[in-house]
């Protein structure tokens, strides 16, 4: 298992370098939208480590084709040059009836399926690569349809899932979706996210994917139970942190992840062959 850390903003570059130098991480996940105007050759020098590409604001389901064409040209150049471990994007709504939303919103997994399927096909062709689409930290009951939606989308388009472990825990706590419902997805996935979450400020309190604190016991328990399934050849686990950069906490969580997956490698190695 390769362990990585997300890089979103310039301020955290020294932290990312320290995590690479100490061997706590093996690669860096770039929120690639923020770097589209950086010359590709400069990007290639970057951290001197493998990278993953996380696309945040393509809005590929609802954006107009001309804007996406232009973004795809820049992304393809970076994909060709940097050869990322994976390219990921989000299935979400960014607008509602012409108004831009403050937070991205979850789709309706049943009624929106056909539209999303067509757009995923189209966006993958434009980028010239397979996309890994992240599962949403569901709030509403409709989130219970997410695992089936992702399985169907994989079957119809070949798109993978960037499986966010703690988003699945958020969905479990908010709308009761059992963690076991993701087993088929975990089995087929190679690229994962994990982060801390918190309760919303306003009541009724929802569990919100805040990326600002340590991993919860619930998330660590989920990782522990499925550690052998997460830890397959070529798999990656990105620890996401976007606020409250307490270095000792981050190091502690990364060490726990390393320990957990090192243990599962040993177990896999020791397993009797039948
Ligand atoms: Fe994530």
Automatic annotation (TrEMBL):
Pfam family, one: MbnB_TglH_ChrH
SUPFAM superfamilies (UniProt xref): Xylose isomerase-like
Top-rank lineage group of the source organism: Bacteria
Range of residues in the leader sequence: none
NCBIfam families to which the protein is assigned, alphabetical: methbact_MbnB
Name of the protein in question: Methanobactin biosynthesis cassette protein MbnB
Species of the source: Achromobacter veterisilvae
